[in-house]
Amino acid sequence: MISGVQMFWSEFMGTALMMAIAFMVAASRSLPKTGAYRADWINASLGWGLAVYVGVYAGWRTGGHLNPAVTLARVVGHWIDPQATLNGLAMGKGGIPVTLANVAIFISAQFLGAFFGTCLGYLGTRKHFELPTDTDTKLMVFCTKPAIRSNFWNLASEAIGTAILVTWVFLNGGTPTQVGPLGVALVITVLVMALGGVSGAAMNPARDFSSRLAYCLLPMSGKKDADWSYA
Q1: CA neighbor of 64 nearest in space, from 92, 89, 99, 81
Q2: Does the keyword Transmembrane apply (predicted)?
């Protein structure tokens, strides 16, 4: 049986690695003086997809949720089928039972891991944040921003993207070929291609909230407000 500490560490490490890599991809394509400055949208989409690939592998012991939406979807799955576990394995074969305590461990690890990973990514690209850069650009390295601000339609975009992601998570494992981390990486890649330029394609409360909080707390010149009204 996996312990609470092991559960926390698995989700924390996976989410932190995902966010650190994705943050550095975003910084490299957005900030002047980097070799990847103004790289196209495929760069961002593949960067996010492969960052999730790394994170899911790192968090394999817990199923690599990295996302409170995925964890809560597993809870709903348990309501439908009481035999369902948090990590998809059968009880007695490494399955993690769906309990309030375990769900709290997963979600807290995801939020804290996302914060830590964002800070790590920031340290990796720190010098470029010291250069004069548009304040909106700096903020968008950390968190999402819509192309057209419309609360209802931005919400619809994020809900549709998250629903597609969660549906794939539910179906994965029920097919003869279980593609695992590579499969979810491709799903994230195509969803960022589809909705990243529309609503930001966060699809993950920890990814957006924790990185937005890090933006507020980290030392940085030319910083604007964190646009919590969109969060």
Answers
A1: 89
A2: yes
Tokens 């394995």 locate to 89
DSSP 199: T
| Residue 67 counted as domain residue | yes
Placement of tokens 């550095």 in the chain: 24
Residue 153 has pLDDT above 90, yes or no: yes
Residue 21 lies in a domain: yes
Instruction: Count how many domains the chain has.
Output: 1
Q: Is residue 35 part of a domain?
A: yes
pLDDT tens digits, 112-138: 999 999 999 999 999 988 888 888 889
The amino acid sitting at 162 is T
How far apart are the C-alpha atoms of 117 and 19, rounded to whole Å?
5
pLDDT tens-place string over residues 35-72:
877 777 788 899 999 999 999 999 999 999 999 999 99
Q: Which residues of 184-218 are buried (b: 16+ CB within 10 A; e: fewer)?
A: bbbbbbebbbebbebbbbbbbbbbbbbbbbbbeee
First-residue to last-residue Cα distance in the chain: 37
Q: What angle do CA 22, 165, 38 make, to 5 degrees?
A: 30
Contact 207, 116 (CB under 8 A): no
User: What CATH number is attached to the domain comprising 126?
Assistant: 1.20.1080.10
C-alpha separations of 108 from 11, 66, 96, 100, 105 in Å:
9, 10, 16, 12, 5
In three-state secondary structure terms, 135 is helix
Domain encompassing residue 103: 4-144+204-217
